[in-house]
User: Fold this.
Amino acid sequence: MTLLEKVKANLILEHNEDDELLQMYIAAAVKYAESYQHLTEDFYTDNSLPATTEQAVIMLSSHFYESRDGSTGGFFADNVQASGQVWNTVNLLLRLDRDWKV
Assistant:
């Protein structure tokens, strides 16, 4: 299953109209992961995503898609802390595969 298919499954999307938009969000989420983990640019172009990083990318891409209008978006749109909770969870997942540098 491709990353796009996994993000669409997470969003429960069955149409293809937003695939290009989702690919842009996935690319942004992967870049964020590389930066947060102190990896070189395009590291995940040549290397596979560890499971925890992949889940973070899926969550962050989904968050970007659901909140593209500037709201917290999605199922938890009525919760003002939803966006912060997403970022906290994403960062916790990315921390597991981080290249810790001194």
